Amino acid sequence: MANFILTHDMSDPSNYNYIKNRMNIGNFITYLGHCIYTCKWDWPNNNDASWRPRTATGKWKWIQFDMETCFGVAKELGPEYAALDAEYNMLEHVFEGIDLPSFGQYGPHHLAQKLIENTSFRNLLIQWFAKHMQEELSPENMNARLDSMVAEIEPYIIEYRNRWSFEMYFNNDWDFSIQLIRDFIQIRPQYMNQHLLEMFGTTSIEQDELWDEQQSQFYLDQNWPNPVKDHTQFRFGLSHPCQVILTLHNMAGQEIAVLVDMHYVEGEHVLHWDSTGLPPGAYFYRLTAGVFTQTRKLMILR
To answer: What is the dihedral of CA 52, 237, 211, 294, to 10 degrees?
Structure first.
């Protein structure tokens, strides 16, 4: 698959559709978005991993890991890291490559660099930033999440320091590191919008207005009947043609079935499903249509 991407014109819809059948585009865009926004600077040269289910229809997905120097924390590791702050242009890093003093060339991500040639992929990535920068990546939400994590982890910090004294080579104490992350959370949006404008000619704020208009006609209704004894139906609506993935998950979040993965035209659609073979209990189902995602809960009774 990677060789196909690197050797073919991804602006050609037929080539892009071929790849969409082999990789989970939504997952890859989310992976890129998080790496870019959080400033995962030592990537993609390192810490880039993918996998796929060993099934006939299994699609490639990417795994996020090794992020201990994201959120601007890296800048305190030494003078050679000073540029790795909220101002750092990860879009240029990913799509063009940047020569980092003392480290050499980092980036580009060669698959992303080719896929961005495709208008649909490029728009999906821009809209990802529009949606998530207004929601979970907003300073308000990020600080709330950080407060929750600090409250959970802080009681163990003294034990951690005593057990792993070599970690103090970072020369940062707990409070100082948390403040570095808070500073990054607060000022990253303005630089991220500047970088989006420089590369794509738009900002997340402008795209958010377009997002609201486009998503107003996307929806996923509650399945009916619910609870489910044997058969049920899922009704969803699309404002424009796109690839639709409907997955079923157990309450631990594990994907247990792909109910549909195909291209749909705009409008309202109904999917009929037979739950035979699944044990009774609570489940949730998730619809992904382009960058639109919605999750609902269902019950199976026997």
So the answer is: -50
Helical pair 174-200 and 119-134, crossing angle rounded to 10 deg: 140
- Spatial neighbors of 226 by CB under 8 A, at least 6 apart, are 232, 298, 299
Residue 215 to residue 221: CA distance in whole angstroms: 14
Low-confidence ranges of the chain (pLDDT < 50): 169-171, 213
Neighbour count for residue 128 (Cβ, 10 Å): 23
**∠ CA(234), CA(291), CA(205), 5° rounding?**
135
The pTM of the full predicted model, rounded to 2 decimals, is: 0.69
Name the residue ranges covered by the structural domains of the chain: 2-209, 217-300
CB 135 within 8 A of CB 27: no
Q: Which CATH architecture has domain 217-300?
A: Sandwich (2.60)
Provide the pLDDT for residue 171.
46
